[in-house]
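Onboarding guide, step 5: your first structure request.
Type a short instruction followed by the sequence, for example:

Predict the 3D structure of this protein.
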Amino acid sequence: MTKTQIWTSAFLAIFIILFFLQRATMKEDTVVVNEPSENYEPAPTQQATGSTGAELVQSFGCYSCHGSDLKGTNLAPGLIGLADYYDRDKLINYLRNPNSFMDQDRFVEFKQKYRNIVMPAYNNKDVKDLGKVADYLLELK
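The system replies with structure tokens like these:
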């Protein structure tokens, strides 16, 4: 064997040993799986423009994470009193792209409390429907 082959074999052996050592000592990530509750109904494929805000909240699946009374669960915060933090347009923007709000203090706290939980974006929903949802959520006290 030449010196090049010896060095190549040594690096390859070290790489393989380190790879298996990393695999053996790796912690398994805890993944929270949200199973829909009995109140969850899949969102309809058609636009639900004739629905009320309360019906849309149910059809969007909000109850499965935020609770049947929307006061929060161990999966997601309560939706009562959102008028203290949002106006209608800001809430609609949040519903369309929740990740754009993640640098705010309130959400930094939520990320610590609700680890591995992600608020889904509703940018594929009709803006009029999101407006109805926003109106309904802002009225909750």
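Each response can be followed by summary notes, for example: The chain has a mean pLDDT of 83.
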